[in-house]
Amino acid sequence: MKIERFEDIEAWQLARELTCKVYCLTKKLGFDKDYGLKRQIQEAAGSAMHNIAEGFDSETNAEFIRFLRYSKRSCTEVQSELYVALDEKYISVVEFQDVYEQARRTRAAVRGFINYLTNYKTPVQKITVNPEP
Questions:
Q1: Which residues, in sequence order, are CB contacts of 35 under 8 Å at separation 6+?
Q2: Is residue 15 a part of any domain in this protein?
Q3: What is the C-alpha to C-alpha distance for residues 129 and 126, in angstroms, rounded to an integer?
Q4: Closest residue by Cα to residue 14 from 115, 119, 93, 111
Q5: 132 within a domain of the structure (yes/no)
Q6: Residue 48: domain span
Q7: How many domains does one find in the chain?
Q8: Contacts of 91 (CB under 8 A, 6+ apart)
Q9: DSSP string, 2-27
Q10: For 24-76, what is each residue's pLDDT tens digit?
């Protein structure tokens, strides 16, 4: 599959699903009284998605990889914050497992994309110039 836009990146698509799930989850009772946790988990999920998009416009693979690493860490942050939501009984075990697994899948896709970009070698383009007669 050819990637022409950041929306074509599988990791971004999974991060978007993660963000949607987190926003849906934080509409539940409990989160309305814990604005700090609500904001933090929403920002972490959004960061997972937005860093992929932002990195897409990087000039080099190394720079793109830096943004992807931020995205990966944000997925882990979502997972950690889910434990707080579970412990505070804002969410059920089933909800926890669903969103935790989405974050895991997203992180795995980001890691796979990092591995791809790390090993991807851009072919050197040879330019031929016609000498003037």
A1: none
A2: yes
A3: 10
A4: 111
A5: no
A6: 6-119
A7: 1
A8: 25, 28, 30, 82, 85, 99
A9: ---SGGG-HHHHHHHHHHHHHHHHTT
A10: 999 998 899 999 999 999 999 999 999 999 999 998 899 999 999 999 999 99
